[in-house]
């Protein structure tokens, strides 16, 4: 009994193509999340450095951090508490606006956050 194997590779490709597409989509979304978090860290570090030199008020720092951390469609919130010895800059945004393929839609309330602490310089 002789069988015809033409088209066997095509069937395997059709079965595996969605798996590879899902892997590429997941890798893209995770890469965008890491890029966004890196952008948050840069904005938080710059803000903390400026505030630690007493060059900006807390309200100005929150607006500055939030405006410098915007990435894609994510609108971050920045919190900048200052005590007697240090400044803490925390930037947070939901992950769902930045995912290109909706991977983070599976995980409800997923957020991306960066926090930087800096010592205050003496006046």
What is the string of helix and strand elements?
HHEEE
Strand order of the largest sheet: 1-2-3
Low-pLDDT segments: none
Structural class: alpha+beta
Determine the number of helices (DSSP H or I, runs of at least 4 residues). 2
Set out the fold topology.
Elements: H1 8-52, H2 58-68, E1 77-79, E2 86-94, E3 111-119
Antiparallel strand pairs: 1-2, 2-3
Structure notes:
The structure is a single chain. This protein has 123 residues and is of the alpha+beta class. The protein has helices at 8-52, 58-68; strands spanning 77-79, 86-94, 111-119. Helix 1 (8-52) packs antiparallel against helix 2 (58-68).
Identify the notable features of this structure and list them briefly.
alpha+beta, 123 residues, 3-stranded antiparallel sheet, 46% helix, 2 helices
Give a short synopsis of this structure:
This protein is 46% helix and 17% strand.
